[in-house]
Design brief:
The structure holds 2 protein chains of 2 kinds. By secondary structure, chain A is mostly helical. Chain A has one domain (25-125): 3 helical TM bundles of succinate and fumarate reductases. In chain A, 79% of the residues lie in helices and 0% in strands. Chain A has 5 helices and no strands. Chain A is elongated, with a radius of gyration of 20 Å. By secondary structure, chain B is an all-alpha fold. Chain B has a domain at 19-34 and 64-128: Up-down Bundle (3 helical TM bundles of succinate and fumarate reductases), CATH 1.20.1300. Chain B has 4 helices and no strands. In chain B, 22% of the residues are buried. The chains are: A mainly alpha, B mainly alpha. The interface between A and B is medium-sized, with 32 and 31 residues.
Chain lengths: 126, 130
């Protein structure tokens, strides 16, 4: 038995039941992605026309590998949060909504795992 | 409390359409498009880890005319989402909602994304010599 009033118990939680958690993490990943995106875009532009060995050598620089992993993790999390809202807005059938949300969640995690593994493999193989 | 069919916001049709509304829906559209772009980036990195043949194949696809059109769209989508995203972060602080300000930031966002895209591609083409 709680002493909270019904209003007090739900205040700040909203319809998503977890308050500003989703909103905050979307902003947090957005802020992280500003410098990471500028860095990655500039780096990839610098690699235009580069051969296989040059790109591998670039990825195996420790700082580059770390930043790539951070970029991929932040991007895929930001993407998952963004697509979740798009689905909430446009998919109204409960079953389809659930299927779409699960697909987005699983796909984001799989792509994050695969791409981060690829970066680490290149980094560790040198 | 009865769950009646209350009207849902926003009532888009009662407003005069403006550039800020185009940029608003483009933020979402480019966000979804960038999801596809992330697949491209993942594929490129995975091909790099898979070996010279896989990487060469990816490079051939990406440097084809279709690949370049996709990459140009990817670049512009990323720059628009980046510029408009920064504007969204400013809006999150409660500032910049006045219409005259929005008109200025509209042009900064749109112009900025186009200029950045042109710079990126000019430098890229400069590096490979046309």
């Amino acid at each position: 038995m709680t002493m909270k009033t019904p209003l007090g118990a739900v205040r700040g939680l909203g319809s998503a039941k977890n308050g500003t958690h989703h909103w905050w993490l979307q902003r947090l990943t957005a802020i992280a992605l500003i410098p990471l995106t500028v860095w990655l875009t500039a780096s990839i532009v610098g690699l235009v026309g580069a051969d296989y060995e040059t790109v591998r050598t670039w990825v195996s620089i420790p700082l580059v590998a770390i930043l790539l992993v951070l970029f991929l993790a932040a991007t895929l999390y930001h993407l998952k949060l963004g697509l979740q809202v798009v689905i909430e807005d446009y998919v109204h059938h409960e079953g389809a909504k659930l299927a779409a949300q699960m697909t987005v969640t699983f796909a984001s995690i799989i792509i994050a795992a695969a791409s981060i593994f690829a970066v680490l493999r290149v980094a560790f193989e040198g | 409390m009865a769950t009646v069919n209350r009207p849902l916001s926003p009532h888009l049709q009662v407003y005069h359409w403006g550039l800020h509304m185009t940029l608003s829906i483009l933020h979402r559209t480019t966000g979804v498009a960038l999801g596809v772009g992330t697949l491209l980036l993942a594929w490129w990195l995975i091909s790099l880890a898979s070996g010279p043949e896989a990487f060469a194949q990816a490079q051939v696809c990406l440097s084809s005319w279709l690949g370049r059109v996709v990459l140009l769209g990817f670049t512009w989508s990323l720059m628009l989402h980046l510029c408009n995203g920064i504007r969204h972060l400013v809006w999150d602080t409660g500032q910049g909602f006045e219409l005259p300000t929005v008109r200025v930031t509209n042009l900064l966002v749109l112009g900025g994304s186009i200029v950045l895209t042109l710079i990126i591609w000019a430098v890229g083409y400069g590096l490979i010599g046309g």
